[in-house]
Amino acid sequence: MSVKFSALYVEQDVHTREVTKGIREITTDDLPQGDILIKVHFSDVNYKDALATISSGRVVRHYPMIPGVDLSGVVVETHNTRFREGDEVLVTGYDLGTAHFGGFSHYARVWGDWVIPLPASLSLWDAMALGTAGFTAALAVDALQMHGVRADSGPVLVTGASGGAGSIAVNLLADQHYEVAAGTGKSAEEYLRKLGASEILSREKVSGSSKHLLDHEIWAGGIDSVGGKTLEYLLRTTRYGGSVAAFGMRGGTQIQTSVFPFILRGIRLLGIDSVNCPYDYRREIWQRLGSDWKPSQLPYIVQNTVGLHNLPQIIDELLQGSHLGRTVVDLNHEE
Fold first, then answer.
1. How far apart are CA 299 and CA 276, in angstroms?
2. What is the mean pLDDT of each run of 10 residues along the chain (335 residues)?
3. What are the distances in angstroms from CA 171 to CA 36, 58, 176?
4. Phi, psi of 174 (to 5 degrees)
5. CATH 3.90.180.10 spans which residues of the chain?
6. Rounded to whole angstroms, how far apart are CA atoms 105 and 40?
7. For 4-118+297-330, which CATH class?
8. Which residues belong to CATH 3.40.50.720 in the chain?
9. Residue 321, by phi and psi: left (phi above 0), alpha (psi -120 to 50) or beta?
10. Residue 130 carries which DSSP code?
11. What is the CATH number of domain 133-271?
Protein backbone atom coordinates (compact mmCIF):
# COMPACT_ATOMS: atom_id res chain seq x y z
CA MET A 1 0.00 0.00 0.00
CA SER A 2 1.31 3.42 -0.96
CA VAL A 3 1.90 5.87 1.91
CA LYS A 4 2.00 9.66 1.58
CA PHE A 5 4.60 11.56 3.60
CA SER A 6 6.83 14.66 3.65
CA ALA A 7 10.46 15.01 2.62
CA LEU A 8 13.02 17.73 1.93
CA TYR A 9 13.09 17.74 -1.85
CA VAL A 10 15.92 19.27 -3.88
CA GLU A 11 15.39 20.01 -7.57
CA GLN A 12 17.44 21.57 -10.36
CA ASP A 13 16.04 23.75 -13.13
CA VAL A 14 16.98 22.14 -16.44
CA HIS A 15 17.58 25.54 -18.09
CA THR A 16 19.21 27.74 -15.42
CA ARG A 17 20.81 24.83 -13.48
CA GLU A 18 19.65 26.59 -10.31
CA VAL A 19 19.04 24.27 -7.35
CA THR A 20 16.10 24.85 -5.00
CA LYS A 21 15.01 23.07 -1.82
CA GLY A 22 11.68 22.76 -0.05
CA ILE A 23 9.39 20.43 1.89
CA ARG A 24 7.25 18.37 -0.43
CA GLU A 25 4.73 15.54 -0.15
CA ILE A 26 5.57 12.31 -1.98
CA THR A 27 4.56 8.66 -1.61
CA THR A 28 6.42 5.42 -1.04
CA ASP A 29 5.83 4.70 -4.75
CA ASP A 30 8.22 7.60 -5.50
CA LEU A 31 11.09 6.04 -3.59
CA PRO A 32 13.99 4.40 -5.47
CA GLN A 33 14.67 0.69 -5.66
CA GLY A 34 15.89 -1.27 -2.65
CA ASP A 35 15.05 -4.38 -0.67
CA ILE A 36 14.28 -2.73 2.68
CA LEU A 37 11.72 -0.03 3.50
CA ILE A 38 12.51 1.93 6.66
CA LYS A 39 10.26 4.19 8.69
CA VAL A 40 12.78 6.93 9.46
CA HIS A 41 12.76 8.17 13.05
CA PHE A 42 15.87 10.36 13.03
CA SER A 43 18.44 11.83 10.67
CA ASP A 44 21.12 14.49 11.19
CA VAL A 45 22.75 17.37 9.34
CA ASN A 46 26.21 17.15 7.77
CA TYR A 47 28.13 19.61 5.61
CA LYS A 48 27.67 17.23 2.69
CA ASP A 49 23.89 17.52 3.15
CA ALA A 50 24.16 21.29 2.92
CA LEU A 51 26.24 21.02 -0.26
CA ALA A 52 23.48 18.88 -1.76
CA THR A 53 21.13 21.88 -1.65
CA ILE A 54 23.23 24.38 -3.62
CA SER A 55 24.21 24.61 -7.28
CA SER A 56 27.94 24.69 -6.57
CA GLY A 57 27.86 21.78 -4.13
CA ARG A 58 28.77 19.10 -6.70
CA VAL A 59 27.89 16.15 -4.47
CA VAL A 60 24.51 15.20 -5.98
CA ARG A 61 24.76 12.91 -8.98
CA HIS A 62 21.25 13.50 -10.30
CA TYR A 63 18.10 15.47 -9.50
CA PRO A 64 15.58 15.45 -7.96
CA MET A 65 17.16 14.30 -4.70
CA ILE A 66 16.21 13.91 -1.06
CA PRO A 67 19.39 14.74 0.92
CA GLY A 68 20.38 13.18 4.20
CA VAL A 69 23.43 10.91 4.22
CA ASP A 70 22.33 9.33 7.52
CA LEU A 71 19.17 7.81 8.94
CA SER A 72 17.96 5.59 11.77
CA GLY A 73 14.61 3.92 12.04
CA VAL A 74 12.55 0.74 11.99
CA VAL A 75 12.21 -1.79 9.17
CA VAL A 76 8.59 -1.86 7.96
CA GLU A 77 9.07 -4.03 4.87
CA THR A 78 11.94 -6.30 3.88
CA HIS A 79 12.95 -8.63 1.08
CA ASN A 80 16.37 -9.17 2.64
CA THR A 81 16.75 -12.27 4.80
CA ARG A 82 19.19 -10.57 7.20
CA PHE A 83 16.47 -8.26 8.52
CA ARG A 84 12.92 -8.59 9.83
CA GLU A 85 10.06 -6.15 10.18
CA GLY A 86 10.46 -4.26 13.45
CA ASP A 87 14.28 -4.31 13.45
CA GLU A 88 15.89 -1.07 14.57
CA VAL A 89 18.60 -0.09 12.09
CA LEU A 90 20.85 2.71 10.88
CA VAL A 91 22.32 3.65 7.51
CA THR A 92 25.21 6.03 6.83
CA GLY A 93 27.18 6.73 3.67
CA TYR A 94 27.09 4.76 0.43
CA ASP A 95 24.90 6.62 -2.13
CA LEU A 96 22.42 7.84 0.48
CA GLY A 97 21.42 11.47 -0.07
CA THR A 98 23.62 11.95 -3.14
CA ALA A 99 22.56 9.34 -5.71
CA HIS A 100 19.78 7.62 -3.75
CA PHE A 101 16.97 9.32 -1.79
CA GLY A 102 18.25 9.92 1.75
CA GLY A 103 17.26 10.48 5.34
CA PHE A 104 15.43 13.82 5.22
CA SER A 105 12.24 11.89 4.69
CA HIS A 106 9.67 9.97 6.76
CA TYR A 107 10.37 6.83 4.74
CA ALA A 108 13.44 5.51 2.91
CA ARG A 109 13.90 2.47 0.69
CA VAL A 110 17.50 1.24 0.67
CA TRP A 111 19.61 -1.83 -0.06
CA GLY A 112 20.18 -4.25 2.78
CA ASP A 113 23.93 -4.27 2.15
CA TRP A 114 23.95 -0.68 3.46
CA VAL A 115 22.01 -1.37 6.65
CA ILE A 116 23.61 -1.79 10.09
CA PRO A 117 21.63 -3.34 12.96
CA LEU A 118 21.35 -0.77 15.74
CA PRO A 119 23.89 -1.60 18.49
CA ALA A 120 22.06 -2.65 21.65
CA SER A 121 23.42 0.20 23.76
CA LEU A 122 22.47 2.95 21.29
CA SER A 123 19.04 4.49 20.85
CA LEU A 124 17.84 5.60 17.43
CA TRP A 125 18.51 9.19 18.58
CA ASP A 126 22.04 8.27 19.74
CA ALA A 127 22.80 6.77 16.33
CA MET A 128 22.03 10.06 14.60
CA ALA A 129 23.69 12.17 17.29
CA LEU A 130 26.77 10.29 16.08
CA GLY A 131 25.89 9.74 12.40
CA THR A 132 28.53 10.05 9.69
CA ALA A 133 30.35 12.64 11.81
CA GLY A 134 30.83 10.26 14.73
CA PHE A 135 31.58 7.32 12.49
CA THR A 136 34.23 9.31 10.59
CA ALA A 137 35.78 10.61 13.81
CA ALA A 138 35.98 7.05 15.16
CA LEU A 139 37.62 5.83 11.92
CA ALA A 140 40.21 8.60 12.27
CA VAL A 141 40.97 7.78 15.92
CA ASP A 142 41.23 4.08 15.05
CA ALA A 143 43.62 4.87 12.18
CA LEU A 144 45.89 6.90 14.47
CA GLN A 145 45.96 4.11 17.03
CA MET A 146 46.69 1.46 14.40
CA HIS A 147 49.71 3.56 13.39
CA GLY A 148 51.10 3.94 16.89
CA VAL A 149 49.69 7.26 18.13
CA ARG A 150 48.87 6.49 21.78
CA ALA A 151 47.66 8.61 24.66
CA ASP A 152 51.23 8.90 25.98
CA SER A 153 52.72 9.76 22.55
CA GLY A 154 52.14 13.50 22.95
CA PRO A 155 49.53 16.10 21.99
CA VAL A 156 47.10 15.48 19.13
CA LEU A 157 45.61 18.38 17.17
CA VAL A 158 42.04 18.21 15.89
CA THR A 159 41.22 20.84 13.27
CA GLY A 160 37.72 22.08 12.50
CA ALA A 161 37.12 21.06 16.10
CA SER A 162 33.81 22.87 16.61
CA GLY A 163 32.14 21.06 13.70
CA GLY A 164 30.35 17.73 14.03
CA ALA A 165 33.18 15.31 13.27
CA GLY A 166 35.77 17.53 14.94
CA SER A 167 33.72 17.83 18.13
CA ILE A 168 33.28 14.08 18.42
CA ALA A 169 36.97 13.48 17.63
CA VAL A 170 38.00 15.84 20.47
CA ASN A 171 35.71 14.04 22.92
CA LEU A 172 36.72 10.54 21.77
CA LEU A 173 40.40 11.35 22.24
CA ALA A 174 39.87 13.09 25.58
CA ASP A 175 37.82 10.16 26.87
CA GLN A 176 40.82 7.95 26.09
CA HIS A 177 43.16 10.29 28.00
CA TYR A 178 44.88 11.95 25.06
CA GLU A 179 46.19 15.49 25.36
CA VAL A 180 43.97 17.23 22.80
CA ALA A 181 44.46 20.60 21.12
CA ALA A 182 41.51 22.01 19.17
CA GLY A 183 41.77 24.27 16.13
CA THR A 184 38.70 26.34 15.34
CA GLY A 185 37.60 29.50 13.58
CA LYS A 186 34.67 30.04 15.96
CA SER A 187 34.32 31.50 19.45
CA ALA A 188 33.86 28.11 21.06
CA GLU A 189 36.44 27.87 23.85
CA GLU A 190 33.98 26.93 26.61
CA TYR A 191 32.34 24.34 24.37
CA LEU A 192 35.63 22.71 23.33
CA ARG A 193 37.06 22.65 26.84
CA LYS A 194 33.95 20.81 28.04
CA LEU A 195 34.61 18.22 25.33
CA GLY A 196 38.11 17.72 26.73
CA ALA A 197 40.40 20.06 24.77
CA SER A 198 43.32 21.33 26.84
CA GLU A 199 44.42 23.94 24.29
CA ILE A 200 42.45 26.05 21.81
CA LEU A 201 44.16 27.34 18.65
CA SER A 202 42.75 29.90 16.23
CA ARG A 203 42.07 29.13 12.60
CA GLU A 204 44.81 31.63 11.68
CA LYS A 205 47.33 29.74 13.83
CA VAL A 206 46.65 26.37 12.21
CA SER A 207 46.27 27.55 8.62
CA GLY A 208 49.04 30.09 8.26
CA SER A 209 51.63 29.85 5.52
CA SER A 210 55.31 29.26 6.21
CA LYS A 211 58.50 29.87 4.30
CA HIS A 212 59.83 26.61 5.74
CA LEU A 213 59.12 23.15 4.32
CA LEU A 214 59.34 21.78 7.87
CA ASP A 215 58.51 23.67 11.08
CA HIS A 216 59.05 22.91 14.76
CA GLU A 217 57.80 19.43 15.72
CA ILE A 218 54.71 19.84 17.92
CA TRP A 219 52.07 17.16 17.35
CA ALA A 220 52.26 13.41 17.89
CA GLY A 221 49.30 13.15 15.56
CA GLY A 222 46.47 15.05 14.00
CA ILE A 223 42.89 14.67 12.82
CA ASP A 224 42.15 17.10 10.01
CA SER A 225 38.58 17.89 9.00
CA VAL A 226 39.48 21.01 7.01
CA GLY A 227 42.03 20.30 4.25
CA GLY A 228 43.93 22.98 2.32
CA LYS A 229 46.41 25.11 4.26
CA THR A 230 45.35 23.57 7.57
CA LEU A 231 46.46 20.14 6.41
CA GLU A 232 49.69 21.70 5.14
CA TYR A 233 50.30 23.12 8.63
CA LEU A 234 49.76 19.73 10.24
CA LEU A 235 52.19 18.01 7.90
CA ARG A 236 54.87 20.63 8.64
CA THR A 237 54.49 20.43 12.41
CA THR A 238 53.86 16.75 13.17
CA ARG A 239 56.61 15.02 15.10
CA TYR A 240 58.91 12.31 13.79
CA GLY A 241 56.96 9.09 13.22
CA GLY A 242 53.60 10.75 13.75
CA SER A 243 50.41 10.34 11.74
CA VAL A 244 47.73 12.65 10.39
CA ALA A 245 44.24 11.30 9.61
CA ALA A 246 42.51 13.49 7.02
CA PHE A 247 38.93 13.58 5.78
CA GLY A 248 37.99 17.24 5.27
CA MET A 249 37.98 19.63 2.34
CA ARG A 250 36.10 22.70 3.52
CA GLY A 251 39.37 24.64 3.60
CA GLY A 252 40.31 23.51 0.10
CA THR A 253 40.88 20.37 -1.93
CA GLN A 254 44.48 21.17 -2.87
CA ILE A 255 47.58 21.10 -0.67
CA GLN A 256 51.14 22.29 -1.29
CA THR A 257 53.73 20.30 0.56
CA SER A 258 57.04 18.55 -0.04
CA VAL A 259 58.38 15.06 0.41
CA PHE A 260 60.29 16.17 3.52
CA PRO A 261 57.61 15.38 6.14
CA PHE A 262 57.48 11.86 4.76
CA ILE A 263 61.13 11.06 4.07
CA LEU A 264 62.81 13.09 6.85
CA ARG A 265 60.27 12.61 9.64
CA GLY A 266 58.54 9.39 8.58
CA ILE A 267 55.11 10.99 8.88
CA ARG A 268 52.08 9.06 7.64
CA LEU A 269 49.13 10.77 5.95
CA LEU A 270 46.08 8.56 6.47
CA GLY A 271 43.06 9.06 4.26
CA ILE A 272 39.70 8.40 5.94
CA ASP A 273 36.72 7.30 3.83
CA SER A 274 33.40 6.83 5.60
CA VAL A 275 31.24 6.52 2.47
CA ASN A 276 32.40 3.17 1.08
CA CYS A 277 34.02 1.73 4.20
CA PRO A 278 33.81 -2.11 4.09
CA TYR A 279 30.71 -3.47 5.79
CA ASP A 280 32.39 -5.67 8.41
CA TYR A 281 34.73 -2.86 9.52
CA ARG A 282 31.81 -0.42 9.47
CA ARG A 283 29.80 -2.67 11.76
CA GLU A 284 32.81 -3.14 14.09
CA ILE A 285 33.27 0.63 14.49
CA TRP A 286 29.55 1.10 15.18
CA GLN A 287 29.70 -1.58 17.87
CA ARG A 288 32.59 0.30 19.50
CA LEU A 289 30.66 3.58 19.31
CA GLY A 290 27.88 1.82 21.15
CA SER A 291 30.16 0.57 23.91
CA ASP A 292 33.57 1.75 25.13
CA TRP A 293 33.86 4.51 22.50
CA LYS A 294 30.49 6.17 23.08
CA PRO A 295 31.42 9.87 23.57
CA SER A 296 30.83 11.00 27.14
CA GLN A 297 29.61 14.43 26.02
CA LEU A 298 27.36 13.30 23.17
CA PRO A 299 24.18 15.02 24.49
CA TYR A 300 26.16 18.26 24.84
CA ILE A 301 27.62 17.98 21.33
CA VAL A 302 24.08 17.88 19.94
CA GLN A 303 23.19 21.57 19.97
CA ASN A 304 19.78 21.12 18.33
CA THR A 305 17.09 18.52 17.72
CA VAL A 306 14.80 19.91 15.02
CA GLY A 307 11.89 18.87 12.85
CA LEU A 308 11.87 18.44 9.10
CA HIS A 309 10.43 21.91 8.51
CA ASN A 310 13.35 23.53 10.38
CA LEU A 311 15.92 21.97 8.08
CA PRO A 312 16.24 24.75 5.46
CA GLN A 313 17.28 27.24 8.17
CA ILE A 314 19.80 24.83 9.74
CA ILE A 315 21.29 24.08 6.32
CA ASP A 316 21.72 27.81 5.63
CA GLU A 317 23.52 28.25 8.98
CA LEU A 318 25.85 25.37 8.14
CA LEU A 319 26.73 26.91 4.77
CA GLN A 320 27.41 30.26 6.46
CA GLY A 321 29.82 28.64 8.94
CA SER A 322 27.79 29.63 12.01
CA HIS A 323 26.73 26.11 12.98
CA LEU A 324 28.19 24.50 16.12
CA GLY A 325 28.34 20.81 16.99
CA ARG A 326 25.64 18.44 15.79
CA THR A 327 21.97 18.79 14.81
CA VAL A 328 19.63 15.80 14.96
CA VAL A 329 16.51 15.75 12.80
CA ASP A 330 13.44 14.26 14.50
CA LEU A 331 10.97 12.82 11.99
CA ASN A 332 8.59 11.28 14.55
CA HIS A 333 6.05 14.05 14.95
CA GLU A 334 5.50 15.59 11.54
CA GLU A 335 3.28 13.16 9.70
1. 28
2. 92 90 95 97 94 90 96 98 98 96 98 97 97 98 98 98 96 98 93 97 91 94 96 97 95 92 97 96 98 97 93 88 86 72
3. 34, 31, 9
4. -65, -40
5. 4-118+297-330
6. 7
7. alpha beta
8. 133-271
9. left
10. H
11. 3.40.50.720
